[in-house]
Design brief:
251 residues; alpha+beta; Alpha-Beta Plaits; four-stranded antiparallel beta sheet; flat; UPF0237/GcvR_regulator; ACT-like_dom_sf; ACT_dom
Length: 251
Amino acid sequence: MRAHRDVTKLTRVAKASHSAIIAPRARDAGRNESASNDFRHFCERFRHASTSTEGTARRSLTTPGSVIRRVVTAFGPDREGIVSEVAQVVLRHGGSVEESRMARLRGDFTMTMLVAFAGRDGERVNVIAFENALDAIENLTSSVRASTETVDESGSAAGVSHRRVLLRGTDFPGITHAFARALFDRGMNIESMSTDTAIAPFGNERLFLVDALVRLPANADAALDEGLRALERDMGLDVEILEHDPVGKMR
C-alpha cells in the first residue's frame, strides 16, 4: 500500500512538472527555470521512493559489484504525462534514477536517464521486464543499453574541476562548433550543454544562448578564460564563466 501511495504522489508531481515545461513559449522565460527545478526535485523524491519502498533495494544498490546500470533514451511527440509514465515503469521494476536529463524541442520530447537496478540473480529479470514495459508506452520510442562506466563511484580524477559557461550572442551558424573546438583544443570536455534562441529585449535581433557544464583538467582555468575570451572577441559573444555548484542548482 505504501508503494502504491508513493507512486500516486510522484505521478502528480511529475504531471505538474511536465505541464509547467510545456506551457506556451510566451510564458517560458519566467517559468522554465521553475519547471526544471520541479523536475530535479521530483527525481530526488523518486530516487528515495524507489529505494525505500523496496525492502532491500537501498542496501543492494550500495553494495560494491551489485548494481546493474542502464542508459535509457526515450523520445516522442510531446504530451502531458510522459514523465509520469516512464517514472512509474522505473519504480515498478525496482529501478532507481541516478541521473537524468529531459527537454522539450518544439513539439517533441526527449529524455535520457541512468537507471540502476539491484544486481542479485533474482532481480536481473527486472531489467528485461523494464525494457519491455518501456516499449509498451504509447508513441514513445526508447532504447536501453548497458552503461559504459569508466570511473569509480567516488567521482572523477584528482585535480579535475568543473565550470559553468554561459554564452550569448547574435545567432548565426558555427557558434556551437567554435565553442566545442576551443574547449577540445585545450583538453577540456563538455559534460552537459543546452542551447536555445530568443529575441533580444530591444529590437528584433535573434540571440543564440548556450549554458554548458565544462570539465577542466588540473590548473586549466587560465586556458579556459583565454579560449573563451578569444571567442568573445572574434565572434562578438558575451561570455560568463561561473563556479559549478551542483547543490545550489538543486535548491
